[in-house]
Amino acid sequence: MKLLLEKWKKFIKETVPLSSPFHNPSKILKEDKVKPIKNPKPSTVPPSSPFYNPPGIKKGDPETPQEQTDSAPIQLGNARIAAVGDSITKGVGAGGVSYIDILGGSKHAIGGKASFNLFGKVTEALATKPDYVIIFVGINNPMAGNRYGACSGNWERLLKNNISEMYATVRAAGAKVIGVTLLPAMGRSARKPQAWESHYIKCNKNPNRRGCCKGKRREARNPQKLYEGTLDVNAFIMANADIPIDTSDMFSHRGILPAYNADGIHLNRNGQQQLANKI
């Protein structure tokens, strides 16, 4: 009988796997007990696989960190994106291809328009049911006319009010705001002054020129003051957008950096690609 029992133990040990309900480790001889594996090798099965089960973590265990198995950070490339803006968003200076084309989103822009002309484009963008809306507006505001604070040096406050309203509209629709900071249009092309600097020089030479601020108000469009106002608006965007995009490494106090500059006002293709990369 004792011999038969020993043969039965040996049979169980050699043929029945440890995971089987019929295996009884308490019946195994002391010297045959299974020893735990020290420093187990990490699993080579990708986390996306249904067979992924890292060492020491039981599948289905409520303590299992979900990020190790099922979930992953939301990627912007998998989301619906829309962009609201002016000529830079249209792709002027870059062959009609802008950052939003590179990202594969929908474009809602009007060249040469200030922020208060672009509320309709926000509505248009939201009609596409986006997850994110890029708001890149305001660089035309300093030249929009005294009615909008351009000659009184008050354009920054009015622009921030417009931006706040746009952000609130986007959020009310359930989307996230991607706010892009402004690129000051005070730079030079390869040959001559452009945009703000050019305007200021011409108005000083001919104060009665159309579009110039009159008298002492002409200083409201001093390029240095416009640059400082741009930095003020950019600080507001950085503090209030859900996802702020900082373009400060793409310009200096002289305007858009040469590597990204198309004409002193717009981004070239390299600049559009850089902006897309940031987003």
Comma- or semicolon-separated keywords:
279 residues; alpha/beta; two-stranded antiparallel ribbon; 8 helices; 7 strands; globular
Word description of this protein:
α5 (155-172) packs parallel to α7 (223-240). This protein starts with a helix and ends with a helix. It is built from eight helices and seven strands. The strands form two sheets. It has a five-stranded parallel beta sheet with strand order 2-1-3-4-5. α5 links the parallel β3 and β4. The chain is α/β, with parallel strands linked by helices. The chain is globular, with a radius of gyration of 32 Å. It has helices at 2-15, 87-90, 99-103, 119-126, 155-172, 195-205, 223-240, 269-278, and strands at residues 81-85, 106-109, 132-136, 176-180, 243-245, 251-252, 255-256.
Give the strand tally: 7
- Could you say which overall geometry the principal axes of the C-alpha atoms support? globular
Output the strand order for the largest sheet: 2-1-3-4-5
Pairing-aware structural class of the strands and helices? Answer: alpha/beta
Distance between the termini: 79 Å
Largest sheet: 5 strands, parallel
Please state the CA-atom Rg, rounded to the nearest Å: 32 Å
Mean pLDDT reading: 78
Overall helicity = 25-40%
The helix tally amounts to 8
Strand content: 5-15%
